[in-house]
Amino acid sequence: MELGPLEGGYLELLNSNADPLQLYHLYDQMDLAGEEEIELCSEPDTDTINCEQFSRLLCDMEGDEETREAYANIAELDQYVFQDSQLEGLSKDIFIEHIGLEEMISESVEVLEEAGQKSQKRPFPEELPVDLKHRKLAPPSSSLLSCLSLPAGPIQIIPTLSTLPQGLWQISGAGTGVSSILIYQGEVPQASQTPPSSNPAVHSLPKSPDRPGSTSPFAPSAADLPSMPEPALTSRANLTVDEMSPTQCPAAHKASRKLPKWPESVEQFYCSLRNKYQAKPAGPEGILVEVDLVRVRLERSGGKSQDRELTTLDWAERQPARGGLGEVLRASSNHRRPRETQVIAVLGKAGQGKSHWVQAVSWAWACGQLPQYDFIFCIPCHCLDHPGDTYRLQDLLFSLGSQPLSGDDEVFSYILRRPDRILLILDAFEELEAQDGFLHSAGGPVSAEFRSLRGLLASLFQRKLLRGCTLLLTARPRGRLAQSLSKADALFEVAGFSTQQAETYVMRYFECSGATEHQKRALALLQSQPFLLSHSHSPTVCRAVCQLSEALLELGDEAQLPSTLTGLYVGLLGPGARDSPPGALVGLARLAWELGRGHQSSLREGQFPSAEVRAWAVAQGLVQPTPGAPETELAFSSFLLQCFLGAVWLALSSEIKDKELPQYLALTPRKKRPYDNWLEGVPRFLVGLVFQPRARCLGALAGLAASTSADRKQKVLTRYLKRLQPGTLKAGRLLELLHCAHEALDAGLWQHVLQGLPAHLSFLGTRLTPPDTHVLGSALEAAGRDFSLDLRSTGVDPSGLGSLVGLSCVTHFRAALSDTVELWESLQQHGEAKLLRAVKEKFTIEPFKAESMKDVEDLGNLVQIQRTRSSSEDTPGELPAVRDLKKLEFALGPILGPQAFPKLVKILEAFSSLQHLDLDSLSENKIGDEGVAQLSATFPQLKALETLNLSQNNITDLGACKLAEALPLLAASLLRLSLYNNCICDVGAESLAHVLPDMVSLRVLDVQYNKFTAAGAQQLTASLRKCPHVEKLAMWTPTIPFGVQEHLQQLDSRIILR
């Protein structure tokens, strides 16, 4: 809208539909090219003000009495809105604390030494757009004097007054950091004339859309926008005066010093929190080797079970988190919506290094590597699982966790104002299984109330409390709570140590212990035991190996590590057990078992058999203080140690009936009251303790006299294990049986398991860890027979895949195409030409089912490798995997099917032995007539094709005619053709009937559920009489009257009606 000359009062203009910005630019007649502008806020796009232009507008408005009365009424409305009941309580306190000048009065201000210099500041949430037409005047505020030197004369900026003297104009701006200011051109009124007041409101100064930096006096206040989120009201709470104005008057410069980023109490709390996390634990606990994180997802385990399990990805499908932990948190926070709580879950088995990763996160923040967070609170969840206790949010943040800190109300109120700058870490989340219903519990937003732990967790996860923060959880993938994490914003898995990381840990361990002379010798000991080396992907086992190696190397040069996990922990506990109080080990083992049955690992002082046992366990490092818990509460030093002690109790206890012992192996779980196997390491340790020689196993722990009861248990387990048929076990339980047999070190048991292995071993969908790969390889090599392996969707690493498929006893194997190609490239780079040829000969993809775009692309890559191989002089010939493929299924559905099918058609000619091409899918591929035309062009190369299934592909008469033209090329081989459930009408049926006599090898034709009528059916029936070789013609369709179909069937019994 174009504005003419201004007529009437400013009240009429206020009530009109005129755009204030156009009014404002009407006064802008001067060239601003050389004008100096003043920065009023600290956002990157700075707000600027033209002094002379603005002053002229204010002077014109100042002379209108009706306008002054109107703004007085607006100010009263502002005060009324401010006192609304919605701002009572905590919300009102936060609002006042954020926008008032109380903090600024008590703190000094420092002037920048050079004009135009900008101080560093933290990023703030973007402010919502505001109405550019109306604004409200703020109530009077307290006194503070500062001034700006502007080009067209001194314009003074001072706090608002209770009454406005002549020549003063009140204006507000969120960008200024103060509640409201007065702009006065001329001499400044005396400071003594400015009585203090309270409860100011923040108003915003929007930028002109025509020229960045220009501002409008008609901007609305934040109170005009009741739905405005809190960051829009608080985004300037931390600005210093230096950030607000680049040039200050000399008077202000003399009396000012630098305003701190936070209030003093907040700054002190920040320093204490940073010092807390900067302090690294002494000894092995302080060794930080950053483990890799892999993005994962949870999916249903299958069947009727509602449990969710981690998806097993192929090695090439893994998506490692690039850039370390900082990038993980930064990338996750970048994708969240404003003011929404971000939930990040890090999953991993016990001992995989989740707590150490959390420790690394805290340390990185303390070192300034996570600047997006003002505060980090790390809380071990075992400190929270105390039935009957009630908590407030400040208790969770300040009083729990290791080294509780004191935080006052000012610190807590700051945290509530800036939840988007808070990272809350809940470590070992599985410890809260008793609270598993919190997601459906009622939670409230009030943080000052005492409530149960369930209610507090409900408020956090339902985004009613501390909304906008980042929640970082670590948990085991099993258990009831882990099932609820499938809807987390980001889900990661701790991958554990690689071989190089394990070796790095060993070097750092001996460096921290001051025994650097043993580093190389310790590495040699570990590398001499491949089984323990494979288990060192677990940081817990890696540390146990270092502890035993250190003890053995101090004894002499004849040191040698054991070959089993059982021997590893017997070696660690044996020396201490010999010097223990009577019954100490057995008593502690019983505690470990009973706590494990209750899914617990923490011990209280009264649970120990005696004070001597407690002191002995602490001295031996078997239990240790729990961070953040009372001094009387201890926990086992590792989950694997608790499993070992639980197995010791089962092996030595007379309270466990012999007939109950096999259930704890969890190989054939019972349907009624099954054993949950929470202590998942118990089966292997139990078999090892019972079967290994007494003198160097149970006898070394409890004495030969106490271990004699294990003989009877050995007989019970032997009968049970030898009744098992390994060929009938599922893949996961077969692997567990192999581990148990390996731990036993019993030749008879080992041979029994090897003899029962089937010739074809499928581990499809079962995760293979490095220890699994090692034990499986040892079993296959010792069996002395040939095997074929299916290693798809196992997540096996490249080195493990190479060790398995390189065995001479493995004649054929299936694995992910991408993983296999990566293995080939690795072997070629290392010059292992003989092994490379052997692996290529063993690899097969028969049968192949493409269910994703990646499957089609991988198949294309395989064909490209063959074409490259065929063009090479030194390695002529086809790849056996491509040459021998006989069955190919394509099931990508109606969306991806039409996109991926042209890629598949381009490589079909490479499969010269293809006999079965199935393009049917339950969700319908819908390749259409175009796809049929593309497929028909490949028929000359598909000379071995016997079955062609084109059902449910949206084929019409056009596609049927194209197909009929090309079918004679398959006349000598095609046995079965299915066009079920398409859109073929009479024209298409007639073209098929015409070519039918030429298909001399065709035995079955299925054209059911199409759209041809009786005319098309009669054409097919007439053609069928000329085809004595056809055995069945299925052509029932709803468009043909049933009587006609029956008549046709009577004419030829080979017609099938369903």
TrEMBL record:
Residue ranges of the region described as Disordered: 189-232
PANTHER family named among the record's database cross-references: MHC CLASS II TRANSACTIVATOR
A Gene Ontology biological process term: positive regulation of transcription by RNA polymerase II
SUPFAM superfamilies: P-loop containing nucleoside triphosphate hydrolases, RNI-like
Cross-referenced InterPro entries: Leu-rich_rpt, LRR_dom_sf, MHC_II_transact, NACHT_NTPase, P-loop_NTPase
A single GO molecular function term of this UniProt record: protein serine/threonine kinase activity
Cellular component GO terms, alphabetical: PML body
Comp. bias intervals (Polar residues): 190-201
Keywords: ATP-binding, Leucine-rich repeat, Nucleotide-binding, Repeat
PROSITE patterns cross-referenced by the UniProt entry: LRR, NACHT
Official protein name in the record: MHC class II transactivator isoform X2
Gene from which the chain derives: CIITA
Pfam families the record matches: LRR_6, NACHT
Domain NACHT: 342-652
